[in-house]
């Protein structure tokens, strides 16, 4: 429901791993913040993440000063929270980012005429400010503003944006904190790529992939990288080959070839060339290119593109899929290009190959029953 007169709302995304630092033991930090600021603070439930992310939604309701006080503390808590080493590769510079969700009307005020306001915000704060892409197709109700910089820059830019929220009479038009039941497209939490996080069957489904690539054919990455990537995935509760590594803590590596059979399956080592790939590097970033059969590409995209968005978020790598009809020469295989700093591409490769292997196995089982 809309806040009372004189009260504003601010919606921000905080990384799930740092939520405890914002909440405090037994909710002590939130209780104290509410007392000091006069604001009301609500969080989405523990596993109720913003679509395509591992971030929880925080809604702050209060005066402009109250919003600033609470949000400045949140920025500080997230910025200073020690990132677990095994998550550092995926999280990257997320602690140095602020993500604010605003209605389209507020987004317009933040951008300003011909981009003048957003340019001023960047100049005054020293931060980089970007908005999720404006869709050409189905419109979204909100946009996500991403601010990148050091702690003081994040605070300065956020406070200017809160002033813009104050200037917009429609700023409280989207007061929900859970997106699980929202119908229609939702804004991507990232400023690059598709405008949509989920829900746009018109633009993001198996027959309308929105990205293009180049490439074909692949040896599996080194074992140390495999172990690192699998441990990282365990922290997100991903399972592989029927084993949930999140419950084991470390990946068992006791097989004669030095690779767990579940990984061998997921890497396509036993799928007779249906998954082929090649790896290249420019020193900092690495590119892995896979060739995936047309009839299995839907498993990688997921419903309304959600799987692809999730895999990019979890791995930290950029994943591009060639358009329908753009196949590897002489095949009906689509090109999938994965780019990023190691081990992000390897993590994404595992997720994709696991997904494809799982889809292949499900079809094989179904064929037996027919």
TrEMBL record:
Q: Where is the K Homology domain?
A: 6-79, 94-166, 284-357
- Name residues in a coiled coil: none
Compartments in which it is found: Nucleus
Q: What is its main location?
A: nucleus
Sorted alphabetically, which SUPFAM superfamilies does this protein's record hold?
Eukaryotic type KH-domain (KH-domain type I)
Q: Which residues cross the membrane?
A: none
Recorded GO MF terms? RNA binding
Which terms under GO biological process does the entry name?
Answer: mRNA processing; RNA splicing
Q: Which controlled-vocabulary keywords does the entry list? A: mRNA processing, mRNA splicing, Nucleus, Repeat, RNA-binding
Q: Name one GO cellular component term.
A: nucleus
**Superkingdom as given in the UniProt entry:** Eukaryota
Tagged with keyword Lyase: no
Q: Name one Pfam family in it.
A: KH_1
Q: How does it assemble?
A: Interacts with PTBP2; the interaction is direct.
Identify this protein by name: K Homology domain-containing protein
**Species of the source:** Ciona savignyi (Pacific transparent sea squirt)
């Amino acid at each position: 429901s809309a806040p009372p007169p004189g009260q504003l709302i601010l919606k921000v995304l905080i990384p799930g791993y740092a939520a405890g630092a914002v909440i405090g033991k037994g909710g002590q930090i939130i209780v104290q913040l509410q007392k000091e600021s006069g604001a009301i603070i609500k969080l989405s439930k523990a596993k109720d993440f913003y679509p395509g992310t591992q971030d929880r939604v925080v809604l702050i309701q209060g005066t402009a000063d109250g919003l600033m006080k609470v949000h400045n503390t949140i920025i500080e808590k997230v910025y200073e929270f020690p990132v677990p080493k095994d998550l550092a590769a995926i999280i990257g510079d997320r602690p140095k980012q602020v993500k604010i969700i605003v209605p389209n009307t507020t987004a317009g005020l933040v951008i300003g005429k011909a981009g003048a306001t957003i340019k001023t915000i960047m100049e005054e704060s020293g931060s980089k400010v970007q908005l999720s892409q404006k869709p050409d197709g189905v419109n979204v109700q909100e946009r996500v503003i991403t601010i990148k910089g050091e702690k003081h820059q994040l605070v300065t830019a956020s406070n200017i944006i809160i002033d813009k929220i104050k200037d917009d009479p429609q700023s409280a038009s989207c007061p929900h904190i859970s997106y699980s039941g929202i119908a229609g497209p939702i804004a991507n939490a990232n400023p690059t790529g598709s405008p949509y996080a989920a829900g746009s069957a018109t633009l993001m489904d198996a027959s309308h992939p929105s990205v293009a690539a180049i490439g074909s054919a692949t040896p599996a990455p080194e074992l140390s990288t495999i172990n690192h990537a699998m441990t990282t995935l365990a922290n997100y509760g991903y399972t592989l080959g029927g084993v949930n590594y999140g419950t084991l803590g470390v990946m068992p590596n006791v097989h004669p070839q030095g690779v767990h059979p579940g990984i061998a399956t997921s890497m396509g080592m036993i799928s007779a060339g249906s998954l082929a790939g090649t790896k290249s590097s420019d020193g900092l970033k690495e590119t892995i290119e896979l060739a995936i059969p047309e009839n299995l590409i839907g498993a990688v995209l997921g419903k309304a593109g959600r799987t692809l968005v999730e895999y990019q978020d979890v791995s930290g790598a950029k994943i591009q899929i060639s358009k329908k009809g753009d196949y590897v020469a002489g095949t009906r295989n689509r090109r999938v290009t994965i780019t990023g700093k190691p081990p992000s591409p390897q993590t994404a490769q595992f997720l994709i190959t696991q997904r494809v292997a799982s889809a292949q196995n499900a079809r094989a089982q179904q064929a037996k029953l027919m």
